[in-house]
Write a structure and sequence with these properties.
Chain lengths: ~350, ~300
Amino acid sequence: MEHILEVKDLQTSFLTSSGEVKAVRGVSFFVNKGESVGIVGESGSGKSVTSLSVMQLLVGTGKIIGGSVKLNGRELVGLSPKEMRSIRGKEVAMIFQDPMTSLNPLIPVGEQVGEMLWSHDKSLSKAQREERVIDLFRMVRIPEPETRLKSFPHEFSGGMRQRVMIAMALACKPDLLIADEPTTALDVSIQDQILKLMRSIQKEMGMSIMFITHDLGVVAELCSRVLVMYGGLIMEEANIYDVFENPLHPYTMGLIASIPDINQDKSKKLQPIIGSPPDMVHPPEGCPFAPRCPYACRICLHQLPPVFSAGEGHKSRCWLLAGDAPSSGNPLKGRKGAKE
Amino acid sequence: MARYLVKRVLIMILTLFMIALLTFCLMHVVPGSPFTSQKQVSQAVLDALNAKYNLDDPLWKQFVDYMIGVLHFDFGPSYKYTGKTVNDFIEGGMPYSGTLGLITLVFVLLMSIPMGIVAALRNGKWQDMLLMFLATLGVTIPSFVIATGLLYIFSFKLGWTPVYGVDSWKGYILPMIAMGGYSISFLARLMRSSLLEVMGQDYIRTARAKGISEVRIIWKHALRNALIPVITVLGPTIANLLTGSFVIEKIFAIPGLGGYFVNSVTQRDYTTIMGMTIFYATVLIAMIFIVDIFYCLIDPRIKYE
Protein backbone atom coordinates (compact mmCIF):
# COMPACT_ATOMS: atom_id res chain seq x y z
CA MET A 1 0.00 0.00 0.00
CA GLU A 2 1.16 3.48 -0.83
CA HIS A 3 1.39 5.85 2.12
CA ILE A 4 0.00 9.27 1.17
CA LEU A 5 0.82 10.65 4.57
CA GLU A 6 3.46 9.36 6.93
CA VAL A 7 3.93 11.02 10.29
CA LYS A 8 6.84 9.92 12.47
CA ASP A 9 7.37 10.93 16.10
CA LEU A 10 5.67 14.30 15.60
CA GLN A 11 6.03 16.64 18.56
CA THR A 12 4.22 19.97 18.73
CA SER A 13 4.30 22.44 21.59
CA PHE A 14 2.86 25.82 22.47
CA LEU A 15 5.12 28.16 24.38
CA THR A 16 2.95 29.98 26.89
CA SER A 17 3.69 32.20 29.85
CA SER A 18 3.01 29.27 32.19
CA GLY A 19 5.43 27.00 30.34
CA GLU A 20 5.67 24.75 27.33
CA VAL A 21 2.37 23.04 26.60
CA LYS A 22 3.30 19.73 25.02
CA ALA A 23 0.18 19.24 22.94
CA VAL A 24 1.52 16.44 20.75
CA ARG A 25 4.28 14.29 22.24
CA GLY A 26 5.56 11.90 19.63
CA VAL A 27 2.82 10.72 17.31
CA SER A 28 3.44 8.27 14.47
CA PHE A 29 0.89 7.11 11.95
CA PHE A 30 0.26 6.82 8.26
CA VAL A 31 -2.65 7.25 5.87
CA ASN A 32 -2.86 5.05 2.80
CA LYS A 33 -4.06 6.11 -0.60
CA GLY A 34 -7.84 6.15 -0.71
CA GLU A 35 -8.13 5.30 2.95
CA SER A 36 -10.05 7.18 5.61
CA VAL A 37 -8.49 7.25 9.03
CA GLY A 38 -10.28 8.53 12.08
CA ILE A 39 -8.53 10.26 14.94
CA VAL A 40 -10.66 10.25 18.06
CA GLY A 41 -10.10 11.66 21.49
CA GLU A 42 -11.54 14.17 23.88
CA SER A 43 -10.81 17.90 23.91
CA GLY A 44 -7.15 18.58 24.56
CA SER A 45 -6.00 15.15 23.44
CA GLY A 46 -3.91 16.69 20.66
CA LYS A 47 -5.96 15.51 17.71
CA SER A 48 -6.60 18.95 16.24
CA VAL A 49 -3.03 20.06 16.86
CA THR A 50 -1.83 16.95 15.02
CA SER A 51 -3.87 17.92 11.97
CA LEU A 52 -2.85 21.57 12.13
CA SER A 53 0.78 20.43 12.36
CA VAL A 54 0.39 18.44 9.16
CA MET A 55 -1.00 21.56 7.46
CA GLN A 56 1.50 23.79 9.30
CA LEU A 57 -1.36 26.08 10.20
CA LEU A 58 -0.39 26.40 13.86
CA VAL A 59 -1.04 29.91 15.06
CA GLY A 60 0.58 31.97 17.78
CA THR A 61 3.31 30.20 19.65
CA GLY A 62 2.54 26.73 18.31
CA LYS A 63 5.62 25.06 16.87
CA ILE A 64 6.64 21.65 15.57
CA ILE A 65 9.45 20.66 17.94
CA GLY A 66 10.49 17.44 16.28
CA GLY A 67 9.58 14.53 14.07
CA SER A 68 8.72 14.19 10.44
CA VAL A 69 5.64 14.66 8.26
CA LYS A 70 5.90 13.14 4.81
CA LEU A 71 3.26 13.81 2.18
CA ASN A 72 3.58 11.83 -1.04
CA GLY A 73 7.08 10.95 0.12
CA ARG A 74 8.12 14.59 0.52
CA GLU A 75 9.21 15.91 3.90
CA LEU A 76 7.07 18.87 4.97
CA VAL A 77 8.75 19.78 8.24
CA GLY A 78 11.34 22.43 7.48
CA LEU A 79 9.86 23.56 4.16
CA SER A 80 9.88 27.29 3.54
CA PRO A 81 6.53 29.07 4.00
CA LYS A 82 6.38 29.58 0.24
CA GLU A 83 6.92 25.88 -0.54
CA MET A 84 4.37 24.96 2.10
CA ARG A 85 1.84 27.34 0.51
CA SER A 86 2.13 25.55 -2.80
CA ILE A 87 1.23 22.27 -1.05
CA ARG A 88 -1.54 23.63 1.16
CA GLY A 89 -4.82 23.41 -0.68
CA LYS A 90 -3.33 21.54 -3.62
CA GLU A 91 -2.01 18.30 -2.11
CA VAL A 92 -3.61 18.52 1.30
CA ALA A 93 -6.75 20.48 2.07
CA MET A 94 -8.69 20.96 5.26
CA ILE A 95 -12.24 21.54 6.38
CA PHE A 96 -12.91 22.99 9.77
CA GLN A 97 -15.22 22.55 12.69
CA ASP A 98 -17.37 25.66 12.53
CA PRO A 99 -18.79 26.47 9.10
CA MET A 100 -20.49 29.56 10.56
CA THR A 101 -17.19 31.34 11.15
CA SER A 102 -14.89 29.64 8.65
CA LEU A 103 -16.03 31.67 5.65
CA ASN A 104 -15.21 35.33 5.13
CA PRO A 105 -18.49 37.21 5.71
CA LEU A 106 -17.70 39.96 3.20
CA ILE A 107 -16.86 37.88 0.12
CA PRO A 108 -19.35 35.94 -2.05
CA VAL A 109 -18.96 32.18 -1.56
CA GLY A 110 -18.25 31.53 -5.23
CA GLU A 111 -15.34 33.91 -5.10
CA GLN A 112 -14.00 32.27 -1.96
CA VAL A 113 -14.04 28.85 -3.60
CA GLY A 114 -12.63 30.35 -6.80
CA GLU A 115 -9.73 31.79 -4.84
CA MET A 116 -8.61 28.26 -4.02
CA LEU A 117 -8.45 27.49 -7.75
CA TRP A 118 -6.72 30.79 -8.47
CA SER A 119 -4.21 30.15 -5.72
CA HIS A 120 -2.84 27.03 -7.42
CA ASP A 121 -3.54 27.71 -11.08
CA LYS A 122 -3.14 31.31 -12.16
CA SER A 123 -3.72 30.42 -15.81
CA LEU A 124 -7.48 29.94 -15.37
CA SER A 125 -9.62 32.80 -16.60
CA LYS A 126 -12.35 34.24 -14.42
CA ALA A 127 -15.04 32.53 -16.50
CA GLN A 128 -13.24 29.18 -16.32
CA ARG A 129 -12.93 29.49 -12.58
CA GLU A 130 -16.61 30.28 -12.27
CA GLU A 131 -17.47 27.25 -14.35
CA ARG A 132 -15.32 25.03 -12.14
CA VAL A 133 -16.94 26.47 -9.02
CA ILE A 134 -20.38 25.68 -10.42
CA ASP A 135 -19.24 22.10 -11.04
CA LEU A 136 -17.92 21.88 -7.50
CA PHE A 137 -21.16 23.26 -6.07
CA ARG A 138 -23.02 20.61 -8.07
CA MET A 139 -20.74 17.94 -6.68
CA VAL A 140 -21.47 18.96 -3.08
CA ARG A 141 -25.18 19.21 -4.02
CA ILE A 142 -25.74 22.91 -3.54
CA PRO A 143 -28.99 23.66 -5.37
CA GLU A 144 -29.02 26.35 -8.09
CA PRO A 145 -25.25 26.74 -8.13
CA GLU A 146 -25.30 29.44 -10.82
CA THR A 147 -27.16 31.88 -8.59
CA ARG A 148 -25.87 30.68 -5.21
CA LEU A 149 -22.36 31.49 -6.39
CA LYS A 150 -23.02 35.18 -5.80
CA SER A 151 -24.52 34.68 -2.34
CA PHE A 152 -22.77 35.67 0.83
CA PRO A 153 -22.08 33.23 3.66
CA HIS A 154 -24.79 34.72 5.89
CA GLU A 155 -27.38 33.77 3.28
CA PHE A 156 -26.53 30.06 3.76
CA SER A 157 -27.49 27.62 6.49
CA GLY A 158 -24.80 25.84 8.50
CA GLY A 159 -25.05 22.66 6.44
CA MET A 160 -24.85 24.61 3.18
CA ARG A 161 -21.83 26.53 4.41
CA GLN A 162 -20.09 23.27 5.26
CA ARG A 163 -20.82 22.12 1.70
CA VAL A 164 -19.16 25.30 0.48
CA MET A 165 -16.16 24.50 2.68
CA ILE A 166 -16.03 20.97 1.25
CA ALA A 167 -16.27 22.34 -2.30
CA MET A 168 -13.41 24.69 -1.51
CA ALA A 169 -11.27 21.92 -0.03
CA LEU A 170 -11.87 19.66 -3.03
CA ALA A 171 -11.33 22.38 -5.64
CA CYS A 172 -7.75 21.42 -6.42
CA LYS A 173 -8.36 17.66 -6.06
CA PRO A 174 -6.08 17.16 -3.04
CA ASP A 175 -4.57 13.76 -2.29
CA LEU A 176 -5.42 14.12 1.36
CA LEU A 177 -8.39 15.81 2.96
CA ILE A 178 -8.17 16.64 6.64
CA ALA A 179 -11.57 17.06 8.23
CA ASP A 180 -11.37 18.57 11.71
CA GLU A 181 -14.71 17.78 13.36
CA PRO A 182 -16.63 18.89 10.26
CA THR A 183 -20.00 17.84 11.64
CA THR A 184 -19.68 18.85 15.29
CA ALA A 185 -21.36 22.23 14.84
CA LEU A 186 -24.24 20.86 12.76
CA ASP A 187 -27.46 19.28 13.91
CA VAL A 188 -27.85 15.54 13.62
CA SER A 189 -29.82 15.25 10.39
CA ILE A 190 -27.44 17.65 8.61
CA GLN A 191 -24.49 15.72 10.11
CA ASP A 192 -25.73 12.62 8.42
CA GLN A 193 -26.11 14.39 5.05
CA ILE A 194 -22.59 15.79 5.23
CA LEU A 195 -21.07 12.42 6.17
CA LYS A 196 -22.88 10.68 3.31
CA LEU A 197 -21.72 13.42 0.96
CA MET A 198 -18.11 13.01 2.09
CA ARG A 199 -18.29 9.25 1.65
CA SER A 200 -19.69 9.46 -1.86
CA ILE A 201 -17.16 12.11 -2.90
CA GLN A 202 -14.34 10.02 -1.51
CA LYS A 203 -15.51 7.10 -3.60
CA GLU A 204 -15.72 9.34 -6.64
CA MET A 205 -12.35 11.03 -6.26
CA GLY A 206 -10.37 8.32 -4.49
CA MET A 207 -8.67 10.70 -2.08
CA SER A 208 -7.55 9.89 1.44
CA ILE A 209 -9.33 11.38 4.44
CA MET A 210 -8.01 12.09 7.89
CA PHE A 211 -11.11 12.52 10.01
CA ILE A 212 -10.77 14.17 13.38
CA THR A 213 -13.68 13.77 15.74
CA HIS A 214 -14.72 12.98 19.27
CA ASP A 215 -17.73 11.08 18.03
CA LEU A 216 -17.17 7.34 17.68
CA GLY A 217 -20.45 6.99 15.82
CA VAL A 218 -19.18 9.31 13.08
CA VAL A 219 -15.97 7.28 12.88
CA ALA A 220 -17.94 4.07 12.51
CA GLU A 221 -19.80 5.55 9.57
CA LEU A 222 -16.85 6.85 7.61
CA CYS A 223 -13.50 5.37 8.63
CA SER A 224 -11.76 2.09 8.08
CA ARG A 225 -9.04 2.62 10.65
CA VAL A 226 -9.00 4.51 13.93
CA LEU A 227 -6.33 6.19 16.03
CA VAL A 228 -7.33 6.89 19.61
CA MET A 229 -5.46 9.86 21.06
CA TYR A 230 -5.04 10.88 24.68
CA GLY A 231 -2.62 13.27 26.35
CA GLY A 232 -0.79 14.04 23.11
CA LEU A 233 -0.13 10.37 22.34
CA ILE A 234 -1.77 7.69 20.22
CA MET A 235 -3.08 5.16 22.74
CA GLU A 236 -4.55 2.63 20.38
CA GLU A 237 -4.57 2.03 16.68
CA ALA A 238 -6.91 -0.50 15.14
CA ASN A 239 -9.23 -1.15 12.26
CA ILE A 240 -12.81 -0.07 12.75
CA TYR A 241 -14.05 -3.55 13.78
CA ASP A 242 -11.38 -4.15 16.38
CA VAL A 243 -11.97 -0.76 17.99
CA PHE A 244 -15.56 -1.65 18.75
CA GLU A 245 -15.30 -5.42 19.14
CA ASN A 246 -11.89 -5.87 20.71
CA PRO A 247 -10.57 -2.63 22.23
CA LEU A 248 -7.25 -3.28 23.94
CA HIS A 249 -6.70 0.03 25.70
CA PRO A 250 -8.67 0.89 28.85
CA TYR A 251 -9.24 4.41 27.45
CA THR A 252 -10.83 3.03 24.29
CA MET A 253 -12.91 0.68 26.44
CA GLY A 254 -14.04 3.65 28.51
CA LEU A 255 -15.00 5.63 25.41
CA ILE A 256 -17.06 2.76 24.06
CA ALA A 257 -18.68 2.08 27.43
CA SER A 258 -19.76 5.70 27.64
CA ILE A 259 -21.78 5.57 24.40
CA PRO A 260 -25.44 5.45 25.40
CA ASP A 261 -27.41 2.50 24.04
CA ILE A 262 -30.77 3.38 22.56
CA ASN A 263 -32.26 0.12 23.90
CA GLN A 264 -30.96 0.46 27.40
CA ASP A 265 -33.09 1.06 30.46
CA LYS A 266 -33.64 4.82 30.70
CA SER A 267 -33.12 4.87 34.45
CA LYS A 268 -29.59 3.55 33.99
CA LYS A 269 -26.96 6.25 34.31
CA LEU A 270 -24.43 6.96 31.56
CA GLN A 271 -20.99 5.59 32.25
CA PRO A 272 -18.48 8.41 32.07
CA ILE A 273 -14.72 8.12 32.35
CA ILE A 274 -14.11 9.57 35.81
CA GLY A 275 -11.54 12.38 36.08
CA SER A 276 -10.19 14.93 33.66
CA PRO A 277 -7.37 15.04 31.09
CA PRO A 278 -3.80 15.68 32.25
CA ASP A 279 -2.10 19.06 32.48
CA MET A 280 0.02 19.24 29.35
CA VAL A 281 2.51 21.73 30.80
CA HIS A 282 3.66 19.02 33.20
CA PRO A 283 2.50 15.79 31.55
CA PRO A 284 2.64 12.79 33.88
CA GLU A 285 5.84 10.83 33.68
CA GLY A 286 3.98 7.54 33.32
CA CYS A 287 0.93 6.74 31.19
CA PRO A 288 -1.16 9.94 30.85
CA PHE A 289 -4.34 7.93 31.34
CA ALA A 290 -3.14 6.11 34.48
CA PRO A 291 -4.80 8.53 36.98
CA ARG A 292 -8.19 7.80 35.40
CA CYS A 293 -7.58 4.16 34.55
CA PRO A 294 -9.49 1.55 36.57
CA TYR A 295 -6.77 -1.02 35.80
CA ALA A 296 -3.70 1.11 36.56
CA CYS A 297 -0.76 -0.69 38.17
CA ARG A 298 2.24 0.83 39.89
CA ILE A 299 4.35 0.81 36.73
CA CYS A 300 1.69 2.81 34.88
CA LEU A 301 2.32 5.84 37.11
CA HIS A 302 6.08 5.83 36.63
CA GLN A 303 6.87 4.61 33.19
CA LEU A 304 5.26 5.47 29.88
CA PRO A 305 4.19 2.20 28.26
CA PRO A 306 5.70 1.43 24.84
CA VAL A 307 3.49 0.62 21.87
CA PHE A 308 2.60 -3.08 21.96
CA SER A 309 1.58 -4.81 18.80
CA ALA A 310 -1.45 -7.07 19.09
CA GLY A 311 -2.10 -8.61 15.75
CA GLU A 312 -2.16 -7.11 12.31
CA GLY A 313 -2.43 -3.32 12.39
CA HIS A 314 -3.63 -3.38 15.98
CA LYS A 315 -1.46 -1.51 18.44
CA SER A 316 -1.97 -0.37 22.00
CA ARG A 317 0.13 1.75 24.31
CA CYS A 318 -0.74 -0.07 27.55
CA TRP A 319 1.18 -2.11 30.11
CA LEU A 320 -1.68 -4.61 30.23
CA LEU A 321 -0.29 -6.01 27.01
CA ALA A 322 3.19 -6.59 28.43
CA GLY A 323 4.28 -10.21 28.70
CA ASP A 324 4.55 -10.03 32.49
CA ALA A 325 1.29 -8.15 33.11
CA PRO A 326 -0.70 -9.61 36.01
CA SER A 327 -3.50 -11.84 34.84
CA SER A 328 -5.82 -11.36 37.81
CA GLY A 329 -8.11 -8.42 37.20
CA ASN A 330 -6.69 -7.94 33.69
CA PRO A 331 -9.61 -7.01 31.42
CA LEU A 332 -7.70 -8.34 28.44
CA LYS A 333 -7.46 -11.90 29.78
CA GLY A 334 -8.32 -14.34 27.05
CA ARG A 335 -8.82 -11.60 24.45
CA LYS A 336 -7.57 -11.84 20.92
CA GLY A 337 -4.21 -10.16 20.58
CA ALA A 338 -3.48 -10.05 24.30
CA LYS A 339 -0.51 -11.95 25.66
CA GLU A 340 -1.41 -15.34 27.13
CA MET B 1 -33.56 50.93 0.40
CA ALA B 2 -35.47 53.97 -0.97
CA ARG B 3 -37.96 53.70 1.87
CA TYR B 4 -35.12 53.49 4.34
CA LEU B 5 -33.51 56.62 2.89
CA VAL B 6 -36.74 58.61 3.13
CA LYS B 7 -37.26 57.43 6.71
CA ARG B 8 -33.69 58.26 7.55
CA VAL B 9 -33.93 61.81 6.14
CA LEU B 10 -37.15 62.43 8.07
CA ILE B 11 -35.50 61.26 11.28
CA MET B 12 -32.55 63.53 10.55
CA ILE B 13 -34.83 66.54 10.18
CA LEU B 14 -36.62 65.65 13.41
CA THR B 15 -33.27 65.27 15.21
CA LEU B 16 -32.13 68.67 13.97
CA PHE B 17 -35.39 70.25 15.13
CA MET B 18 -34.99 68.71 18.58
CA ILE B 19 -31.39 69.92 18.80
CA ALA B 20 -32.48 73.42 17.82
CA LEU B 21 -35.33 73.44 20.35
CA LEU B 22 -33.14 72.13 23.15
CA THR B 23 -30.36 74.64 22.39
CA PHE B 24 -32.89 77.47 22.25
CA CYS B 25 -34.36 76.54 25.65
CA LEU B 26 -30.99 76.04 27.36
CA MET B 27 -29.72 79.30 25.91
CA HIS B 28 -32.60 81.27 27.38
CA VAL B 29 -32.38 79.50 30.75
CA VAL B 30 -28.82 80.76 31.18
CA PRO B 31 -28.85 84.22 32.80
CA GLY B 32 -27.65 87.25 30.87
CA SER B 33 -28.46 88.58 27.45
CA PRO B 34 -26.51 89.70 24.38
CA PHE B 35 -26.73 93.26 25.58
CA THR B 36 -25.47 92.72 29.08
CA SER B 37 -22.17 94.51 29.38
CA GLN B 38 -19.96 96.18 31.91
CA LYS B 39 -21.02 99.59 30.73
CA GLN B 40 -24.28 100.58 32.33
CA VAL B 41 -26.83 100.90 29.57
CA SER B 42 -30.06 102.71 30.24
CA GLN B 43 -33.28 100.74 30.29
CA ALA B 44 -34.60 102.76 27.36
CA VAL B 45 -31.67 101.69 25.19
CA LEU B 46 -32.08 98.04 26.25
CA ASP B 47 -35.79 98.17 25.44
CA ALA B 48 -35.05 99.66 22.06
CA LEU B 49 -32.44 96.95 21.33
CA ASN B 50 -34.78 94.19 22.44
CA ALA B 51 -37.51 95.63 20.27
CA LYS B 52 -35.19 95.92 17.27
CA TYR B 53 -34.26 92.23 17.47
CA ASN B 54 -37.77 91.13 18.51
CA LEU B 55 -36.40 89.90 21.85
CA ASP B 56 -39.49 91.32 23.55
CA ASP B 57 -41.69 88.79 21.78
CA PRO B 58 -42.78 85.72 23.75
CA LEU B 59 -40.14 82.95 23.57
CA TRP B 60 -42.25 80.59 21.46
CA LYS B 61 -42.74 83.29 18.85
CA GLN B 62 -39.02 84.03 18.80
CA PHE B 63 -38.33 80.35 18.23
CA VAL B 64 -40.91 80.01 15.47
CA ASP B 65 -39.65 83.15 13.71
CA TYR B 66 -36.09 81.92 13.99
CA MET B 67 -36.90 78.46 12.64
CA ILE B 68 -38.77 79.98 9.68
CA GLY B 69 -35.59 81.92 8.94
CA VAL B 70 -33.50 78.77 9.21
CA LEU B 71 -35.75 77.06 6.67
CA HIS B 72 -34.76 79.86 4.26
CA PHE B 73 -31.09 79.32 5.18
CA ASP B 74 -31.15 82.61 7.05
CA PHE B 75 -29.51 82.25 10.45
CA GLY B 76 -30.23 85.85 11.41
CA PRO B 77 -28.07 88.82 12.35
CA SER B 78 -25.38 88.66 14.98
CA TYR B 79 -26.44 90.51 18.13
CA LYS B 80 -22.86 91.27 18.99
CA TYR B 81 -21.19 92.31 15.76
CA THR B 82 -23.25 95.03 14.18
CA GLY B 83 -23.88 94.60 10.48
CA LYS B 84 -22.72 90.97 10.46
CA THR B 85 -24.99 87.99 10.00
CA VAL B 86 -24.42 84.48 11.25
CA ASN B 87 -24.34 83.41 7.60
CA ASP B 88 -21.33 85.72 7.19
CA PHE B 89 -19.56 83.91 10.02
CA ILE B 90 -20.23 80.49 8.55
CA GLU B 91 -19.34 81.54 5.02
CA GLY B 92 -16.22 83.31 6.25
CA GLY B 93 -15.03 80.61 8.65
CA MET B 94 -15.98 77.47 6.79
CA PRO B 95 -13.36 77.74 4.02
CA TYR B 96 -10.58 77.86 6.61
CA SER B 97 -11.99 75.26 8.98
CA GLY B 98 -13.06 73.07 6.07
CA THR B 99 -9.70 73.22 4.31
CA LEU B 100 -7.80 72.52 7.49
CA GLY B 101 -10.27 69.76 8.36
CA LEU B 102 -9.98 68.05 4.99
CA ILE B 103 -6.18 68.20 4.99
CA THR B 104 -6.12 66.89 8.54
CA LEU B 105 -8.56 64.12 7.67
CA VAL B 106 -6.38 62.88 4.82
CA PHE B 107 -3.34 63.13 7.06
CA VAL B 108 -5.10 61.24 9.87
CA LEU B 109 -6.20 58.43 7.56
CA LEU B 110 -2.80 58.12 5.88
CA MET B 111 -1.08 57.91 9.24
CA SER B 112 -3.42 56.03 11.54
CA ILE B 113 -4.47 53.10 9.37
CA PRO B 114 -0.95 52.08 8.26
CA MET B 115 0.25 52.58 11.85
CA GLY B 116 -2.47 50.30 13.16
CA ILE B 117 -1.75 47.68 10.51
CA VAL B 118 1.99 47.67 11.20
CA ALA B 119 1.43 47.50 14.95
CA ALA B 120 -1.00 44.60 14.59
CA LEU B 121 1.22 42.63 12.22
CA ARG B 122 4.27 43.20 14.45
CA ASN B 123 2.25 42.47 17.57
CA GLY B 124 4.52 42.43 20.60
CA LYS B 125 7.63 43.39 18.62
CA TRP B 126 9.47 46.71 18.90
CA GLN B 127 7.52 48.31 16.04
CA ASP B 128 4.29 47.63 17.91
CA MET B 129 5.69 48.94 21.20
CA LEU B 130 7.00 52.12 19.57
CA LEU B 131 3.80 52.89 17.67
CA MET B 132 1.57 52.23 20.65
CA PHE B 133 3.84 54.36 22.84
CA LEU B 134 3.43 57.22 20.34
CA ALA B 135 -0.31 56.58 20.20
CA THR B 136 -0.55 56.82 23.99
CA LEU B 137 1.32 60.12 23.88
CA GLY B 138 -1.00 61.37 21.14
CA VAL B 139 -4.11 60.57 23.14
CA THR B 140 -2.85 61.90 26.47
CA ILE B 141 -1.00 65.09 25.52
CA PRO B 142 -3.53 67.90 24.94
CA SER B 143 -3.52 69.37 21.45
CA PHE B 144 -2.58 72.85 22.66
CA VAL B 145 0.58 71.47 24.26
CA ILE B 146 1.49 69.74 21.01
CA ALA B 147 0.64 72.91 19.11
CA THR B 148 2.77 75.12 21.32
CA GLY B 149 5.67 72.67 21.17
CA LEU B 150 5.48 72.47 17.39
CA LEU B 151 5.29 76.24 17.09
CA TYR B 152 8.32 76.68 19.32
CA ILE B 153 10.46 74.16 17.43
CA PHE B 154 9.45 74.57 13.79
CA SER B 155 8.35 78.19 13.61
CA PHE B 156 10.35 79.96 16.29
CA LYS B 157 13.61 77.97 16.42
CA LEU B 158 13.89 76.54 12.91
CA GLY B 159 11.78 79.08 11.09
CA TRP B 160 10.44 76.50 8.62
CA THR B 161 6.79 77.37 9.02
CA PRO B 162 4.92 80.64 9.63
CA VAL B 163 4.10 81.44 13.23
CA TYR B 164 0.50 82.32 12.46
CA GLY B 165 -2.05 82.48 9.66
CA VAL B 166 -2.65 80.35 6.61
CA ASP B 167 -1.57 82.69 3.83
CA SER B 168 0.66 79.97 2.35
CA TRP B 169 0.17 76.20 2.36
CA LYS B 170 2.98 75.95 4.90
CA GLY B 171 0.68 77.50 7.46
CA TYR B 172 -1.52 74.38 7.43
CA ILE B 173 1.25 71.93 8.34
CA LEU B 174 1.55 72.53 12.06
CA PRO B 175 -2.20 72.92 12.75
CA MET B 176 -2.75 69.70 10.82
CA ILE B 177 -0.29 67.78 13.01
CA ALA B 178 -1.57 69.31 16.24
CA MET B 179 -5.20 68.77 15.37
CA GLY B 180 -4.72 65.27 13.92
CA GLY B 181 -2.58 63.93 16.77
CA TYR B 182 -5.46 62.74 18.87
CA SER B 183 -7.44 61.19 16.02
CA ILE B 184 -4.36 59.45 14.62
CA SER B 185 -3.58 57.89 17.97
CA PHE B 186 -7.15 56.89 18.62
CA LEU B 187 -7.74 55.40 15.17
CA ALA B 188 -4.35 53.65 15.10
CA ARG B 189 -5.20 51.88 18.35
CA LEU B 190 -8.62 50.94 17.08
CA MET B 191 -7.23 49.68 13.79
CA ARG B 192 -4.60 47.63 15.60
CA SER B 193 -6.99 45.90 17.98
CA SER B 194 -9.55 45.36 15.25
CA LEU B 195 -7.02 43.81 12.86
CA LEU B 196 -5.60 41.65 15.64
CA GLU B 197 -9.06 40.32 16.35
CA VAL B 198 -9.75 39.64 12.68
CA MET B 199 -6.42 37.86 12.21
CA GLY B 200 -7.50 35.36 14.86
CA GLN B 201 -10.77 34.56 13.11
CA ASP B 202 -11.54 31.17 11.60
CA TYR B 203 -11.91 32.54 8.07
CA ILE B 204 -8.32 33.77 8.15
CA ARG B 205 -7.26 30.21 8.95
CA THR B 206 -9.42 29.05 6.04
CA ALA B 207 -7.65 31.53 3.79
CA ARG B 208 -4.27 30.26 5.01
CA ALA B 209 -5.38 26.70 4.30
CA LYS B 210 -5.82 27.70 0.65
CA GLY B 211 -2.12 28.37 0.36
CA ILE B 212 -2.47 32.04 -0.57
CA SER B 213 0.21 34.51 0.42
CA GLU B 214 0.15 36.41 3.69
CA VAL B 215 -0.01 39.75 1.86
CA ARG B 216 -3.14 38.66 0.02
CA ILE B 217 -4.68 37.30 3.22
CA ILE B 218 -4.22 40.67 4.91
CA TRP B 219 -5.26 42.72 1.89
CA LYS B 220 -8.19 40.66 0.69
CA HIS B 221 -9.52 38.96 3.80
CA ALA B 222 -8.45 40.86 6.90
CA LEU B 223 -8.43 44.58 6.10
CA ARG B 224 -12.01 45.01 4.95
CA ASN B 225 -13.27 43.19 8.01
CA ALA B 226 -10.98 45.14 10.30
CA LEU B 227 -12.06 48.50 8.85
CA ILE B 228 -15.71 48.14 9.94
CA PRO B 229 -15.21 49.41 13.53
CA VAL B 230 -12.87 52.13 12.24
CA ILE B 231 -15.52 53.41 9.83
CA THR B 232 -17.98 53.56 12.72
CA VAL B 233 -16.00 56.20 14.57
CA LEU B 234 -14.96 57.97 11.40
CA GLY B 235 -18.28 59.86 11.08
CA PRO B 236 -18.01 61.91 14.29
CA THR B 237 -14.24 62.27 13.73
CA ILE B 238 -14.77 63.84 10.30
CA ALA B 239 -17.47 66.17 11.63
CA ASN B 240 -15.14 67.28 14.42
CA LEU B 241 -12.26 67.93 12.08
CA LEU B 242 -14.34 69.81 9.51
CA THR B 243 -16.02 72.18 11.92
CA GLY B 244 -12.76 73.32 13.38
CA SER B 245 -11.08 73.29 16.72
CA PHE B 246 -11.34 76.46 18.78
CA VAL B 247 -8.02 75.83 20.52
CA ILE B 248 -6.02 75.06 17.40
CA GLU B 249 -7.55 77.93 15.44
CA LYS B 250 -6.82 80.30 18.29
CA ILE B 251 -3.18 79.22 18.64
CA PHE B 252 -2.43 79.40 14.93
CA ALA B 253 -4.61 82.48 14.36
CA ILE B 254 -6.78 80.76 11.77
CA PRO B 255 -10.07 82.63 11.19
CA GLY B 256 -12.17 79.46 11.24
CA LEU B 257 -15.52 78.51 12.75
CA GLY B 258 -14.24 77.32 16.10
CA GLY B 259 -13.55 80.82 17.40
CA TYR B 260 -17.01 82.14 16.57
CA PHE B 261 -18.62 79.19 18.26
CA VAL B 262 -16.91 79.67 21.62
CA ASN B 263 -17.16 83.47 21.60
CA SER B 264 -20.84 83.36 20.78
CA VAL B 265 -21.54 81.31 23.90
CA THR B 266 -19.69 83.62 26.27
CA GLN B 267 -21.33 86.65 24.68
CA ARG B 268 -24.86 85.19 24.66
CA ASP B 269 -24.98 85.97 20.97
CA TYR B 270 -28.19 83.99 20.64
CA THR B 271 -28.42 83.76 16.88
CA THR B 272 -24.75 82.80 16.52
CA ILE B 273 -25.11 80.07 19.15
CA MET B 274 -28.15 78.70 17.36
CA GLY B 275 -26.61 79.00 13.92
CA MET B 276 -23.33 77.35 14.87
CA THR B 277 -25.06 74.54 16.76
CA ILE B 278 -27.43 73.81 13.90
CA PHE B 279 -24.58 73.94 11.41
CA TYR B 280 -22.38 71.60 13.45
CA ALA B 281 -25.25 69.21 14.12
CA THR B 282 -26.10 69.10 10.42
CA VAL B 283 -22.52 68.22 9.47
CA LEU B 284 -22.36 65.56 12.20
CA ILE B 285 -25.68 63.98 11.29
CA ALA B 286 -24.78 64.02 7.60
CA MET B 287 -21.45 62.32 8.32
CA ILE B 288 -23.09 59.61 10.42
CA PHE B 289 -25.59 59.10 7.59
CA ILE B 290 -22.80 58.75 5.04
CA VAL B 291 -21.00 56.27 7.30
CA ASP B 292 -24.15 54.17 7.56
CA ILE B 293 -24.42 54.10 3.78
CA PHE B 294 -20.75 53.11 3.61
CA TYR B 295 -21.45 50.18 5.92
CA CYS B 296 -23.94 48.91 3.43
CA LEU B 297 -21.33 48.99 0.69
CA ILE B 298 -18.62 47.25 2.69
CA ASP B 299 -20.64 44.69 4.65
CA PRO B 300 -23.20 42.61 2.75
CA ARG B 301 -24.74 41.45 6.04
CA ILE B 302 -26.09 44.94 6.65
CA LYS B 303 -29.29 45.59 4.76
CA TYR B 304 -31.43 48.63 5.41
CA GLU B 305 -35.08 47.96 5.07
